[in-house]
Design a protein that fits this description.
This protein is an alpha+beta fold. It has helices spanning 8-21, 29-36, 45-61, 103-111, and strands spanning 27-28, 65-74, 77-86. The protein has a single domain (8-111), classed as Winged helix-like DNA-binding domain superfamily/Winged helix DNA-binding domain (Arc Repressor Mutant, subunit A, Orthogonal Bundle). Strands 1-3-2 form a 3-stranded antiparallel sheet, with helices on both faces. β2 and β3 (77-86) form a beta hairpin. α1 (8-21) packs across α3 and α2 crosses α3 (45-61).
C-alpha cells in the first residue's frame, strides 16, 4: 500500500457509514470500491478492490456488517462477488431485499459479463 492509499481502518469506517446511510441497499465489493475509492484514483484497481474487500470483511468479522457471497459461471467464465449490507437493516438474508437480489437474478446479472461491474 502506498502512502496515498487509504488505511484499512479508515476505509472500514467509510464502508460502514455508507452501508448505514442506506440500510435498504446492499452493495457489492465493486460498488463500494467505485463509490468510495475510484473517485480518488490512488493505487491500482486490483489493489484497491482487495483493500475494499478486506475492509468490508473486517466489518463482518466484528458484527458491523452482513454479507453474502454470490457467483455465476457462463460460457467458461467465472464471475464472483460479495454483497454487503448494514446491520441496521431488518433483512438478515440477501433475498429479503427483493426480487433483484434473489439467487437466480444475481446469477443472471453476474453471468452477463466477464468483469463484474456492480450489482
Amino acid at each position: 500500500m502506498s502512502a496515498e492509499e487509504p488505511s484499512l481502518a479508515g476505509l472500514e469506517e467509510r464502508i460502514e457509514s455508507s452501508l448505514n446511510d442506506d440500510p435498504e441497499r446492499p452493495r457489492c465489493v465493486h460498488g463500494l470500491y467505485e463509490e468510495l475509492l475510484a473517485p480518488e484514483g490512488p493505487g491500482s484497481r486490483d489493489d484497491l478492490l482487495d483493500l475494499t474487500r478486506r475492509a468490508a470483511e473486517e466489518l463482518v468479522e466484528h458484527g458491523r456488517a452482513r454479507r453474502r457471497y454470490v457467483s455465476a459461471i457462463a460460457i467458461g467464465a467465472h464471475c464472483e462477488d460479495t454483497v454487503y449490507w448494514s446491520v441496521t437493516s431488518p433483512n438478515r438474508e440477501l433475498e429479503e431485499f427483493g426480487p433483484e437480489f434473489e439467487q437466480f437474478a444475481i446469477a443472471r446479472r453476474l453471468a452477463g459479463h466477464i468483469q463484474c461491474h456492480c450489482l
